[in-house]
Design brief:
This protein has 373 residues and is α/β, with parallel strands linked by helices. The protein has 2 domains: 56-195, 3-Layer(aba) Sandwich (Rossmann fold); 214-368, Rossmann fold. The protein has 15 helices and 14 strands. The chain has helices at residues 9-28, 81-89, 101-104, 107-112, 133-138, 149-157, 170-184, 187-210, 238-245, 263-269, 281-289, 297-300, 321-332, 342-354, 360-368; strands at residues 56-60, 66-70, 76-78, 96-100, 120-124, 130-131, 143-146, 162-164, 218-225, 228-232, 248-250, 259-260, 273-276, 304-306. The strands form 3 sheets. It has a 6-stranded mixed β-sheet, sandwiched between helices. Strands 9, 10, 11, 12, 13 and 14 form a 6-stranded mixed β-sheet that branches. The two termini are 40 Å apart.
Length: 373
């Protein structure tokens, strides 16, 4: 253990993962001299010719569809905003030939991964958006990723190998990363393993500490984005999942992801804390100043905050969800997680998965939802 002194918790885990992988590769490459050889020096009994290397593999996507894809993927068209972050996290940003206009315009993406400016936007608009299938076909991608059933069906009808990687919970997020790594192969497989270990370690840490807490649960309202304060996340969503893991409870009883409620329904939920996704500090002040929300306990107490927002919003669909559960737990229960340094956790994540060293100012901006300076 002495050789790891001075390493952060994240770096130690990564070193251990890489060391194990290196050992496995070394063992796989070892020869075993106790096997007799023939006159030509070839191990006896090895008289069959090696099978040709496969050029295709079958991958099952998150909808359960089997899709045949090349074993060597060099060009990817990614038609889901959030999944582009997963591609870059797995070290495969260089394979992107098509992305979405939403992802291409993200402020932190252009700072951390400036090559995105060279990738063609094939999807215009939010949600499923408007897809330029003709241009997508002209790029001749090996694989197409997406999250909308109609988009995937259309892509397949045009002869494209398209996988649906959409999900709505943490199990789906894990499968999303696993399936993507299987398609990409190589380094992506080890990165995916390291990321999943990080996610699981963070969740386990939060669960262990929260199991000892006697503090009443914080009633939380999560607003999807600053463009519509009436669009919220109810129970049975990935947002609700991290709220509960972190020791909170959803202020809403209406179930669903990105549901629209009336102002009266939201006021009736009377949350103690309001978190706004995809919001800046300026958006938070705008919400607090809005006469419609003055009766909410969270507004009266000034407990309205922007969710951290980096390469993609931490609160849904992103691989940065591995940080979200830790941030939320510390946010709701600072006394239980005083030893967790979210600035360092974020710096470690960005250096490990993006190869980018955040400055102190940059990490503070990401954690507060602010744009780059």
């Amino acid at each position: 253990m002495a050789e790891y002194e001075g390493l952060t918790r994240r770096q130690f885990m990564y070193v251990g993962s890489v060391s194990a992988a290196t050992l496995a590769l070394g063992l796989a490459g070892c020869s075993f001299p106790n096997k007799p050889a023939d006159d030509n020096g070839t191990p006896a009994g090895n008289d069959t010719a090696p099978e040709p290397e496969a050029t295709e593999q079958t991958v099952v996507d998150l909808q359960g569809d089997s899709v045949v894809v090349p074993t060597k993927v060099t060009k990817v068209a990614d038609l889901w905003h959030a999944h582009n972050q997963v591609m870059i996290m797995l070290g495969a940003g260089g394979t992107l030939v098509g992305t979405t206009d939403v992802f291409k315009k993200r402020a932190w993406v252009n700072v951390v991964y400036p090559r995105i400016s060279e990738v063609e936007a094939l999807v215009i608009g939010s949600g499923a958006g408007e897809v330029n299938y003709e241009e997508c076909m002209a790029l001749e991608p090996d694989v197409v990723f997406g999250s909308d059933k109609e988009v995937i069906a259309t892509a397949r009808s045009k002869g494209l190998a398209a996988l649906n990687v959409g999900f709505q919970d943490y199990d789906g997020l894990r499968k999303d990363v696993q399936v993507t790594a299987q398609v990409l192969g190589g380094e992506a497989l080890e990165r995916a393993k390291t990321w999943e270990e990080m996610l699981d370690a963070n969740i386990a840490l939060v669960q262990e500490r929260m199991a000892k807490s006697t503090k009443p649960k914080t009633r939380v309202l999560h607003i999807c984005n600053a463009n519509d304060f009436n669009m919220v996340d109810g129970p049975n969503t990935i947002v609700d999942e991290w709220i509960k893991l972190a020791g909170g409870e959803n202020a809403l009883t209406q179930e669903g992801n990105r549901i629209t409620l009336t102002t009266e329904e939201i006021l009736a939920s009377n949350p103690e804390v309001v978190i706004i996704g995809s919001a800046t500090p300026e958006d938070v002040e705008r919400f607090k100043a809005d006469p419609n929300w003055q009766g909410v306990t969270a507004v009266k107490n000034g407990a309205v905050y922007a969710n951290p927002d980096g390469m993609f919003p931490w609160d849904r669909y992103s691989g940065e969800e591995a940080l979200q559960v830790l941030w939320a737990a510390k946010f709701f229960n600072p006394e239980l997680f005083a030893d967790i340094d979210m600035e360092q956790e974020t710096k470690d994540f960005y250096e490990l998965f993006y190869g980018y060293k955040l400055t102190d100012d940059q990490v503070k901006r990401i954690l507060s939802g602010a744009k780059p300076a």
